[in-house]
Design goal:
Length: about 300
């Protein structure tokens, strides 16, 4: 389930000058699969200066079962890199993928969505202290970049540490295609290829505005303290300290709990399933500094922030 595009069509050339793109490390995350399908059809191997390695589906067992993790054993493939040749299922898959496809490449783009029943704002995640990671993250053109190290065992963490600078793109919901986000991601791919000289005739895209937020800054998952029906309440992903983010009510609307933002920030992930139990995550809130806040407020005022960022 991979498409390989090179100057020698259909041949995987294990030399430098390669760029790898991966999707469906979690088997239910489908937006990235469509991005890579479209990318495979878009570029003529004779017209690119380098090699593209497109891994549409990394977690094949999870993809076929339409599950996030490796079926039966419930293993997270994106916490199993670089893997081991003789270990559990997830680590064997991770090892084969890493050794054969990731390690020989120069740069990596890893596409993800939220898990089921949630949605994620379109953004990139990258360790911006790494100069080459910084370079491709900015070239990709997402308005929002969360800067920080990736989780141990993730593809992004291991690849970047071992010399293949990699960024993660988070985009929308699981179990579906979302055309507006897919188009933006395809434009981002083309912009990165232009930056790296793989598409010499193209230019690097400017998203109009961009903010880099240190993921070590204030952030939290707001969780339900009581069960009930959740009604999300916000006009924009930007919320201010004390704003009502959602309300949780019982089935007779006799009792209602208002969940408020503990600090000013961006809702980068929100619950979609309105049924919640105590402890369920409701939204992922990331704090912003004064400069970022002012920039986003300007974008809201001028209408640049009107598109639903979760599409």
């Amino acid at each position: 389930m991979q498409t390989l595009i090179s100057q020698r069509s259909g041949i995987l050339a294990l030399q430098r000058g390669e760029d790898v793109k991966t999707a469906a490390l979690h088997g239910d995350e489908l937006n990235g699969v469509k991005v890579l399908q479209e990318a495979a059809a878009r570029y003529d191997p004779a017209e690119i200066a380098g090699t593209l390695v497109l891994l549409h589906v990394v977690n094949v067992p999870g993809y076929l079962a339409q599950q996030r993790y490796i079926p039966i054993y419930d293993q997270d493939l994106n916490r199993s890199f670089p893997g081991k040749e003789r270990s559990n299922t997830a680590e064997r898959i991770a090892n084969a993928v890493y050794k054969r496809f990731i390690e020989p490449c120069d740069y990596g783009l890893d596409f993800h969505t939220s898990t089921r029943n949630r949605t994620t704002m379109y953004h990139a995640r990258a360790d911006m202290t790494d100069p080459e990671v910084n370079r491709i993250a900015r070239a990709f053109g997402a308005n929002l970049i969360l800067s920080g190290e990736a989780d141990p065992g993730s593809l992004r963490s291991v690849a970047t540490r071992n010399g293949t600078p990699t960024i993660t793109i988070e985009m929308g919901k699981a179990h579906r295609f979302q055309p507006p986000l897919i188009k933006r991601a395809l434009d981002g791919v083309e912009s990165v290829l232009a930056e790296l000289g793989v598409l010499p005739g193209e230019s690097v895209d400017w998203p109009g505005w961009r903010r880099v937020i240190d993921s070590a800054k204030e952030k939290t998952w707001l969780r339900a303290d009581r069960g009930g029906l959740v009604d999300m309440r916000y006009d924009h992903p930007l919320v201010y300290e004390g704003d009502a983010v959602c309300r949780i009510s019982d089935h007779f609307s006799r009792e209602e709990t208002v969940v408020r933002a503990p600090f000013t920030g961006l809702l980068v992930g929100v619950l979609q399933n309105p049924v919640a139990a105590p402890g369920h995550p409701l939204c992922h809130l990331v704090g912003v500094d004064g400069e970022t806040l002012a920039e986003i407020e300007r974008e809201i005022e001028t209408g640049e922030f009107t598109e639903e960022p979760w599409a």
